[in-house]
Amino acid sequence: MTNITLNVAVLLVLVLVSWRVLRRLRGGALFWTVFHLCLLTMLADTAMIAADLYVFDPDKILGIYLWGAPLEDFAYAIAAALGMPVLWTVIGRRQSAHRVARRAAAEPRGGSSA
Fold first, then answer.
1. pTM score, two decimals?
2. Which among 13, 28, 37, 104 is most buried, taking Cβ atoms within 10 Å?
3. Contact assessment for residue 11 and residue 79, using Cβ atoms and an 8 Å cutoff
4. Per-residue pLDDT tens for 25-74?
5. Cα separation, 41 vs 21, whole angstroms
6. Separation of alpha carbons 82 and 88, rounded Å
7. Which residues, other chains included, contact 60 with Cβ-Cβ below 8 Å and sequence gap of 6+?
8. For residue 6, what are the CA distances in angstroms to 34, 54, 55, 76, 97?
């Protein structure tokens, strides 16, 4: 299995699992987040590859490079840009639900005080 096959499969599963949340998020913000994370990935990967910190197996990659960074490496930036806002939204909703439940449990039930 090549890296691009694995990356596409992981991104597809991520989008499918989080689609209900993703469709409610602002598209422009997601686009610019993906753009900037990919730009940072391109810069950092190019520097790390030039410094021989890691090497890619040529049999596992397509051989398409963006300024020294293999195309496959950008899937991680895309996954982070999509996955983190989804997690932030879901965790935020759960914390809000817990706060509401705690307030409801703390309030006295029935009867008035006087």
1. 0.71
2. 37
3. yes
4. 888 888 999 999 999 999 999 999 899 898 888 888 888 888 988 888 89
5. 25
6. 11
7. 2, 3
8. 19, 19, 18, 11, 36
